[in-house]
Design a protein that fits this description.
- The complex is a heterodimer of chains A (about 100) and B (about 210).
- Chain A has helices at about 15-25, 35-50, 60-75, 80-95.
- By secondary structure, chain A is an all-alpha fold.
- Chain A has one domain (about 15-95).
- Chain A starts with 12 loop residues before the first helix and ends in a 10-residue tail after the last helix.
- By secondary structure, chain B is an alpha/beta fold.
- Chain B folds into two domains: about 20-50, no CATH class; about 55-210, Nitrile Hydratase, Chain A (Alpha-Beta Complex).
- Helices cover about 45% and strands about 10% of the residues of chain B.
- Chain B contains eleven helices and four strands.
- Chain B has helices at about 20-30, 40-50, 55-65, 70-75, 80-85, 120, 130-140, 140-145, 185-190, 195, 205-210, and strands at about 95-100, 105-110, 155-160, 165-170.
- In chain B, the strands form two sheets. In chain B, strands 1-4 form a two-stranded parallel sheet.
- The longest helix of chain B has 15 residues, at about 20-30.
- Chain B is globular and about 65 Å long.
- The chains are: A mainly alpha (about 100), B alpha/beta (about 210).
Chain lengths: ~100, ~210
């Protein structure tokens, strides 16, 4: 079992964004903290069953899976919508000269 | 213009990774729908990335060690007591302080996912979220403590507290011997994140001199 004392924090910015989104939705009462914990726990079990080593390193992947699932279940954003939006963002990045802010058309 | 050999072109911006794009897309959809606002997201990121952390819990524990009335308030209702430091968590989240004594050692886990007293300890360490810790803290707490180098006499009772979304725990470690007369600020140096989760005890004054 790993016991190292490294500072936790976020490894990549998207992890912080995903963390904040779930908390913002709980703060707004869109779902409860308990619903969130149950869904996250469920996604962790599901990932374990699918072979994820679940050593804490992949934690934010489970976090994002739980967030996407609750957003879909609550009718806030469906997977298809997110995929379409991701394509739009990708195109926007590719069309924006390096160094300029990227925004959707 | 002849280039320096790299064929990097500057008329576009490299898109982020797929996972980062998914998060960005979800965020922008939720913002468009008025379900979250960008400023609230930025404030949350700033708070957890920079402002909350074990330094909050250290202040709480050091105060409890030096102020018996505060300690009683902390044991009675930790959520209200940490509110005195402006560390109060989300409404509906109860915080319970569990006190280590010569007879009882407390250990905190979340067997389901990663429930943690964010407002006083910040983000949980990676091992706290790992499957081995989540399982073994319950099945073999002394074994887990041993891996953190924490050996307790057999007669000490180990109590394991399983956190939930509504109920989170902060361990109040024992104040180390030889610290009589120390100020709260001095005592804070002996308090570690791990001692407030319960996998270790607070440092001793000798540990501090040894640079540990």
């Amino acid at each position: 079992m790993a016991t190292d004392d490294a500072e936790p924090g976020f490894c990549e910015p998207w992890q912080a964004q995903a963390f904040a989104l779930a908390n913002a939705l709980i703060d707004k009462g869109v779902f409860s903290a308990d619903e969130w914990a149950q869904t996250l726990g469920d996604e962790i079990k599901r990932a374990q069953a699918a072979g994820d080593p679940d050593t804490g390193e992949t934690y934010y992947n489970h976090w994002l899976a739980a967030l996407e699932r609750l957003c879909a279940e609550k009718g806030l954003a469906q997977a298809g919508e997110i995929g379409t939006r991701a394509d739009e963002w990708r195109d926007a990045y590719l069309a924006t000269p390096h160094g300029e802010p990227v925004s959707l058309p | 213009m002849p280039h320096d050999g790299h064929n990097h072109d500057h008329d576009h911006t490299e898109p982020p990774s797929d996972v980062a794009l998914r998060v960005k897309s979800l965020e922008s959809l939720l913002i468009d729908k008025g379900l979250v606002d960008a400023a609230a997201i930025d404030a949350l990121v700033d708070r957890y990335a920079h402002r909350v952390g074990p330094q909050n819990g250290k202040k709480v524990v050091a105060r409890a060690w030096t102020d018996p009335e505060f300690k009683q308030r902390l044991l009675d209702d930790a959520r209200e007591a940490v509110g005195e430091f402006d560390f109060k968590g989300r409404p509906g989240e109860r915080l319970v302080a569990v006190e280590n004594t010569p007879e009882v050692h407390n250990l905190v886990v979340c067997t389901l996912c990663s429930c943690y007293p964010w407002n006083v300890l910040g983000l949980p360490p990676v091992w706290y979220k790992s499957a081995p810790y989540r399982a073994r803290a319950v099945s073999d707490p002394r074994g887990v403590l041993g891996e953190f180098g924490t050996e307790l006499p057999d007669e000490v009772e180990v109590r394991v507290w399983d956190s939930t979304a509504e109920m989170r725990y902060l361990v109040l470690p024992e104040r180390p011997a030889g610290t009589e007369g120390w100020s709260a600020e001095q005592l804070e140096q002996l308090i570690t994140r791990n001692s407030m989760i319960g996998v270790e005890q607070a440092k001793s004054p000798a540990d501090l001199e040894g640079g540990a």
